[in-house]
Amino acid sequence: MLVAAAVCPHPPLLVPELAGAAAAELDELRAACAAAVGVLRDAAAEAIVVVGGADRAVAYGADASGSLAPWGPDVRTGPGEPVLPLSLSIGRWLLEREHLTASGFHSISFDAAPAECAALGGRLAATAGRVAMLVMADGSACLTEKSPGYLDLRARPYNTAIVGALGRAEAPALAELDPGEAAELWFAGRAALQVLGGAADSLNGEILYDEAPYGVGYFVARWTE
User: CA-based angle 89:93:94, to the nearest 5?
Assistant: First the structure.
């Protein structure tokens, strides 16, 4: 059963070594992520699983490692040969900062069907009596004219609605997200959030951060019993 969840974004610049002189600009976001990840420790979970979007769905073991070399300095997470995609590499980095260990890492294809996402969420929630989940999910990249996807006037209300659902821990609202609309609005976290929607039952939500410092929606939420 899912007893706690943390939702965090996964920009490479979250790691200070990659942000360089601009690292301080995301200090508030890092602090929010640390607070959210803290609920995974406090939940007394028997298993912590990490979920994030990637080009394909893969289940990785607890010893899976990642590298941020494609985005700058070769910051490593884990001791072995890097295999984790960006979202899960940042997820492992966040856990390591809080001295936490995951029982497994799970990528879900960015274009996965909602049913596939929900099924994965259900399977992960059933892996132990008390399961905590770290969900790596970026918001829309179409919020401003300087956004990677340029400005789409639909993006801000769409992004705001999803943040609102996270704040209320409304799993059904996440399950209803349309893959086509999410793709049009460059909402990269849609599939990962739908895994959360498929795992959660009755939890309480709280938003710790909701900004778009580089034209991309970065939000942090925690769900607890």
Answer: 120
Between CA 93 and CA 96 the distance in angstroms is 5
Residue type, 82: P
C-alpha closest to that of 188 among 145, 147, 130 = 147
- The Cα–Cα gap between 32 and 97 comes to 13
CA distance 215 to 217: 7
User: From CA 214, how far away is CA 208, in angstroms rounded?
Assistant: 18
Q: Report pTM.
A: 0.97
How far, in Å, CA of 200 to CA of 183, rounded? Answer: 24
Residue 20 has pLDDT above 90, yes or no: no
pLDDT digits (tens, 9 = 90+) for 53-99: 999 999 999 999 999 999 999 999 998 899 999 999 999 999 999 99
Residue with tokens 């893959």: 179
Pairing of strands 47-54, 131-136: parallel
Structure tokens at 83: 């295999």
194 within 8 A of 177, measured Cβ to Cβ: yes
* Averaged pLDDT, 147-158: 96
